[in-house]
Amino acid sequence: GNSVTQMEGPVTLSEEAFLTINCTYTATGYPSLFWYVQYPGEGLQLLLKATKADDKGSNKGFEATYRKETTSFHLEKGSVQVSDSAVYFCALSPSRGNQGGKLIFGQGTELSVKP
Amino acid sequence: NAGVTQTPKFQVLKTGQSMTLQCAQDMNHEYMSWYRQDPGMGLRLIHYSVGAGITDQGEVPNGYNVSRSTTEDFPLRLLSAAPSQTSVYFCASSPGTGLMEQYFGPGTRLTVT
Hints:
Radius of gyration of chain B: 13 Å
Largest sheet of chain A: 6 strands, mixed
Helix content of chain B: under 10%
Order of helices and strands of chain A: EEEEEEEEEEEE
Number of helices of chain A: 0
Mean pLDDT of chain B: 92
Helix content of chain A: under 10%
Order of helices and strands of chain B: EEEEEEEEEEE
Low-confidence stretches of chain B: none
Largest interface: A-B, 28 and 30 residues
Mean pLDDT of chain A: 91
Shape of chain B: globular
Strand content of chain A: over 45%
Number of helices of chain B: 0
Largest sheet of chain B: 7 strands, mixed
Distance between the termini of chain A: 41 Å
Shape of chain A: globular
Strand content of chain B: over 45%
Oligomer: heterodimer
């Protein structure tokens, strides 16, 4: 079946440090991959997405590359800020024919950035 | 344009009580869904709808009912609340199925005592 596995948190970094949050997936066919971010007390917001192999999604300094050979979609940022403190979710949408556009989420990784 | 709205923001129920969580969207999206968020488990799909009059079960549907009489509204009903339903509930909508981004509401935090 389809599943998403993220590295466990919490992750604590100092401001301007390099960030990597690992995400691997299991899926049949050609899923789309997403990173969502949840700031404290809020709902989820789409951070970036990639819809086919070797695509790179990017937004707000964050990047992730769809690697089909390693079934991975790791999130990276070169220099984190205190305002990046949030919970990050990796998710997949199964390939075409998916009923209802269901998203399958990883368990989430909490990031805390200290000044 | 309010996006996806949810009410109430917080709710406390006693075991056995019933209630309805409201969700509305003003983006004319066909697809709507309900998720629950529990610590260490990410978000899990409860029910979803691909259009008015059409609903289907997700990963964890037991104890919940839904209906979709209009494009805009997708209420989630708890018929007899249980402590295991203590969670944060998110409603989401999307323009279409498959590869489209989903837009999430702010969530409802439910506690069942």
